[in-house]
Amino acid sequence: MFSQLFTWWNSTTFGTSFTLWRKGARLVGTDEQGNRYFEEKEPSLPGSDGKRRRRWVVYHGVAEASRVPPDWHGWLHHTFEEAPTVAPLTRRAFEKDHLPNMTGTPLAYHPKGSLSRPGGPADVNDDYEAWTPESA
Label partner for 51 (CA 20 to 30 A): which of 39, 70, 124, 126? Predict the structure, then answer.
């Protein structure tokens, strides 16, 4: 209970829960990571065609924006009017699964020759040749 007061980076706080309750937000859907998406009952945001409804995501676990899949991201930012639960995006054969940003984690990408590569830097092709100006 105490952690819910201050740990905004880990799911929801009492303040967020209160705001969702006060705005009459309804649960619109959940993604494959367990993040929950809400939309307020009455429109309160200005929009090009009148008023728009405010939308929220409540993260399941660590609050990291890159964990929001593209279809839900589009809905949150009013790019798509219908939520992915109502009108899912068509998936093309060449599209890969969504991955969150792994920077700073053990799963981060470390290219060949990187000092932070597990096991130390690998031998890199010695094909680099420094440029030196011609002497006049």
Answer: 70
Kindly list the distances between the CA atom of residue 57 and the CA atoms of 67, 87, 106, in Å, as whole numbers in the listed order: 11, 18, 26
**Which pairs count as long-range contacts for 115-121, CB under 8 Å and 24+ apart, including other chains?**
none
**116-129 tens-digit pLDDT:** 777 776 666 666 77
Burial 97-126 (b: 16+ CB within 10 A, else e): ebeeeeeeeeeeeeeeeeeeeeeeeeeeee
Dist. CA 127–CA 131, nearest whole Å: 13
The secondary structure of residue 123, as a DSSP letter, is: P
Do residues 37 and 83 make contact, with C-beta atoms less than 8 angstroms apart?
yes
- E strands along the chain, which residues? 26-30, 36-39, 45-47, 50-52, 55-58
Q: Whole-number mean pLDDT of the chain?
A: 81
